């Protein structure tokens, strides 16, 4: 059974056939963009988060996201 790239980047401890960890590569690329990144290690795993930047002055973040 062969896994697709999307299946390799779901698990933080799943290596691709080339020996790559896509989650780590995504974090490194986010750092190169100059955005804020944070990683937290717990006894159950690791959580990586990055800041979502607004790319256009016409875009405004929704203040009511998640509200009903």
From TrEMBL:
SUPFAM superfamilies: N-terminal nucleophile aminohydrolases (Ntn hydrolases). InterPro entries: Ntn_hydrolases_N (IPR029055), Proteasome_alpha (IPR050115), Proteasome_asu_N (IPR000426), Proteasome_sua/b (IPR001353). Its main location: cytoplasm. It is found in: Cytoplasm; Nucleus. One of its GO terms (cellular component) is cytoplasm. It holds the Pfam family Proteasome_A_N. Residues 8-30 form the Proteasome alpha-type subunits domain. Gene3D superfamilies: Glutamine Phosphoribosylpyrophosphate, subunit 1, domain 1. Keywords: Cytoplasm, Nucleus, Proteasome. One of its GO terms (biological process) is ubiquitin-dependent protein catabolic process. It comes from the Eukaryota. The 26S proteasome consists of a 20S proteasome core and two 19S regulatory subunits. Belongs to the peptidase T1A family. PANTHER family: PROTEASOME SUBUNIT ALPHA/BETA. This is Proteasome subunit alpha type. It comes from Sinocyclocheilus rhinocerous.
């Amino acid at each position: 059974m062969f896994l697709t790239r999307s299946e390799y980047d779901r698990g933080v401890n799943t290596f691709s056939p080339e020996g790559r960890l896509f989650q780590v590569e995504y974090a490194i690329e986010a750092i190169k963009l100059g955005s804020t990144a944070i990683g937290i290690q717990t006894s159950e795993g690791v959580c990586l988060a990055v800041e979502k930047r607004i790319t256009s002055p016409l875009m405004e973040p929704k203040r009511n996201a998640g509200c009903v």
